[in-house]
Amino acid sequence: METRTLASLNLNGIRSATGKGLIDWLKTEKPDIAGFQEIKANPEQIDVSSFEELGYHCYWFPAFKKGYSGTALLTRILPDFVSKGIGVDLFDAEGRVIRADFGDITLVVIYFPSGSSGEVRQSVKMEFLDEISKYLNSLKKDRPKIIITGDFNICHKPIDINNPNKHLTVSGFLPEEREWFDNFIASGWTDTFREFCSDSDRYSWWSFRSGARAKNIGWRIDYFLVTDNLKPQLKNADIRDKIILSDHCPVILEIDF
């Protein structure tokens, strides 16, 4: 086995993030695998060669709606198998899930819906939580060693959000969302960051409003979770909160493959 570095980042637009130094960051961080969410572009709108020149095989899953959602997987390790979507048209049209198999380990990059725009999208978000659970539970039967990463749009615990009492009725910290997260973790998953850090002020997303990032008024909504059977292979997990490429920052996992 070899220790691999995995990275995940909600780009809030890959063209915007590229303009803010995404390529330079990849050159510096040198992740073996990077999962991106909210790419907001089709491959023909992206200078794909700039990623390929760094040694990455690139897999893109844009949304049907231009300039919206979408995920991507960049990997220096050639996968044995890649698939896109979970078989639910509503979510596959938004380009929310990419799966790749590497030997006996499966990586799934996920962009969970946001419910912040109102009741309709909150309902869609809750439906996604149900569907992604079904998808992953089914996947575990054949592929028991799984890493999932991405923007979950949920803070799991009070430690993961600034001023938790202020957000009890806000999408992203609702009781029903956190209950889903509790149940999901209890079904056999480990929050890798919390294996290495118990600090209460480590966040991965900050609003663009009111200087939230400078004040560290943030939310931890970007995760690497692994099936519990991978815990012995964990080496480190971190949040690169000094890297400014979007309103999110990269999250990192080091794990033996």
Q: Care to describe what's here?
A:
With 257 residues, the chain is α+β, with helices and mostly antiparallel strands. It has one domain (3-256): 4-Layer Sandwich (Deoxyribonuclease I, Chain A), CATH 3.60.10.10. 25% of the residues lie in helices and 28% in strands. It is built from 7 helices and 14 strands. It has helices spanning 14-19, 22-29, 49-52, 89-92, 119-142, 175-186, 192-196; strands at 3-10, 33-37, 57-61, 71-75, 81-84, 97-102, 105-111, 145-151, 189-191, 205-206, 218-219, 222-227, 234-239, 251-256. It has a 6-stranded mixed sheet. α5 links the parallel β7 (105-111) and β8. The termini are close together.
Q: Strand percentage, roughly? A: 25-35%
Rg over alpha carbons? 17 Å
Described by the principal axes of the CA atoms, the overall outline is globular
SS-derived structural category? alpha+beta
Strand order, biggest sheet? 3-4-2-1-14-13
Number of helices: 7
Predict the CATH topology.
Answer: Deoxyribonuclease I, Chain A
What count of domains describes the coordinates?
1
Residue runs with pLDDT of under 50 for 5 or more positions: none
Q: Encode the helix/strand succession as letters.
A: EHHEHEEEHEEHEHEHEEEEE
Mean pLDDT: 97
By DSSP, the count of extended strands is 14
